[in-house]
Design a protein that fits this description.
CATH architecture of the largest domain: 6 Propeller
CATH superfamily of the largest domain: TolB, C-terminal domain
Order of helices and strands: EEEEEEEEEEEEEEEEEEEEEEEEEEEEEE
Distance between the termini: 56 Å
Number of helices: 0
Structural class: mainly beta
Strand content: over 45%
Number of strands: 30
Length: about 350
């Protein structure tokens, strides 16, 4: 009997003195022989399992792949969303446990295998539409599905979307190298999404982030030892693009993961240059977005130690450079409205990058 598991994490229960973060999460198991889905409440710190209610698939269930869920998501109201392999989206209401079929991300032939909710009104999905990686969105308020665009032609979604510090990422396969990797999604122009980090030989189906209050952590769920029967929960360091420790192994194959995470965006971008907002340094360089006329920044870097401040467009082309920094107010009136990357380089070679929106 084969099983696949979809995991999501429930976190951030507020109390008067602060926030408590639980390590409980849910798993969705699929019996591929009987085409039955089950959900269990489990805990990362022990082996307990509690059977939970689940929304059974109802759309076109004579199709084999409409009976198997490939990923899940949790919105800001704690409603749970399930997506089938062929793109049918379901919602389980948190208050009364009612289930409803919402529609399909795409009517064309394809597979959806990645799902995530933002902190507002959208559910994002990714999958292969006619052998092309594509990004989709469901508007919870308007009850509308839309295709945001195609991904770069050599990246195929491999398992999950996840947010981290207002940026959107996707576990993928690079078809030119067959490398398992993470790409950063350009939400404005998905075809300009960027390679971000390697996942080595891990076949990664699930990924999610957790906000611990003053910091966030991200995790992947991988096919352990490439045997399609066991999976591992592994922490990744997004800031430094590193794979960290294995937390736990599961005696099942994991297909997806999700957590409610409130640091999300609808217009996150990336550039095809080696930039990183999170360089592991104690230095900081902050400014308010969006801006129209002036880039007013705060920093703990001595102004005399700043070698340059460059502004790049979303394709990595340098728009302007400030080489002499005498004050913390830079004139950007000559830069057109749009999305940019600010790159700060110090005399010692340290680099800090930040996204800039000019309206």
């Amino acid at each position: 009997m084969n099983y696949k598991i979809i995991i999501y994490l429930i976190c951030c229960f507020s109390i008067a003195s602060g926030s408590i973060y639980t390590q409980e999460f849910y798993i969705n198991t699929v019996d591929n022989t009987q085409l039955e889905n089950d959900v269990y409440l489990v805990n990362v710190s022990n082996s307990s399992q509690e059977l939970q209610a689940l929304c059974p698939p109802t759309n076109n269930t004579q199709q084999y792949f409409e009976n198997t869920y490939t990923d899940i998501a949790i919105d800001y109201q704690n409603n749970t969303y399930y997506v089938s392999a062929l793109g049918s989206l379901y919602r389980k209401n948190f208050l009364d446990s009612s289930c409803e079929f919402l529609g399909k991300f795409a009517e064309s032939v394809g597979t959806i295998n990645a799902l995530v909710a933002d902190s507002n009104n959208f559910i994002y999905a990714a999958g292969n539409l006619n052998s092309v990686g594509s990004l989709f969105r469901y508007d919870i308020i308007l009850d509308e599905f839309s295709q945001l665009g195609n991904l770069p032609d050599h990246y195929i979604p491999a398992g999950d979307l996840f947010f981290y510090n207002d940026r959107l990422f996707l576990t993928s396969i690079d078809t030119t190298t067959l490398e398992s990797c993470i790409i950063e999604i350009n939400m404005v122009e998905p075809e300009l999404s960027c390679y971000y980090m390697t996942l080595n030989d891990f076949v990664t189906y699930g990924a999610f982030s957790v906000n611990f209050g003053s910091y966030s952590k991200s995790y992947i769920l991988t096919d352990w030892n490439n045997n399609n029967e066991y999976s591992s929960l592994i922490e990744i360091d997004i800031e430094n693009r590193e794979i960290l420790n294995t937390i736990r192994n599961y005696n099942h194959r994991v297909y997806g993961a999700a957590a409610y995470y409130n640091q999300t965006s609808t217009n996150s971008i990336c550039v095809n240059v080696d930039v990183n907002d999170f360089n592991g340094s104690d230095l900081y360089f902050n400014f308010i977005n969006p801006t129209s006329n002036s880039l007013v920044f705060t920093t703990n870097i001595e102004l005399s130690s700043i070698k340059s401040i460059g502004v790049f467009d979303i394709q990595g082309k340098k728009v302007t450079t400030f080489n002499t920094i005498n004050h913390n107010n830079l004139d950007v009136t000559h830069i057109n409205t749009g999305f940019y990357i600010v790159e700060v380089i110090t005399d010692s070679g340290k680099k800090i990058t930040k996204k800039l929106i000019i309206d």
